[in-house]
Amino acid sequence: MGIDIDLRSPRVREFIPSKEADVTAVRLKKVPFPHVYLCGADVGDLTGLDEPEDKRILRSEESGARCDACGRAVYRGEQSRVFLYHEHETQRVLQLEVDDIFSLTSVKGLQEYLSQIRSIAARYDVNTIEFKNRKNQQQ
User: Fold this and answer.
1) What distance in Å separates the CA atoms of residue 118 and residue 112, rounded to the nearest whole number?
2) Which residues touch 57 (CB under 8 Å, ≥6 apart)?
3) pTM
4) Which of 8, 27, 30, 60 has the fewest CB atoms within 10 Å, i.e. the most exposed one?
5) Do strands 126-133 and 89-98 pair parallel, antiparallel, or not at all (unpaired)?
6) Is pLDDT of 41 > 60?
């Protein structure tokens, strides 16, 4: 899965906004999408434990095994189908704190900051930007 990068660290300067921007870069993290691929017991019982896990999973899919988390989500009506192993991804998310996530257009310097970090975000393979309220950390 990888390690999250705490962007408040003085060692990471690329994502630090200018003093004019009212935004704080908090964390660069990896997030599974739509969720972590959950292997069933049938994958663990396969022979060939010396081969990489992804090869065992692909081999097990050929014999009918599927992601258990997808199966449960389909059963609960939360997703329309079971995704194959290669359809499960890891996305890189840049987490930013602002004063009010419900009024992003009024955040001072946000548009300029996002333009400024576009090439940096591409270099780090950022797929998504997540905004959090600075005042209320539960959102």
Assistant:
1) 10
2) 37, 39, 43, 65, 85
3) 0.62
4) 8
5) parallel
6) no
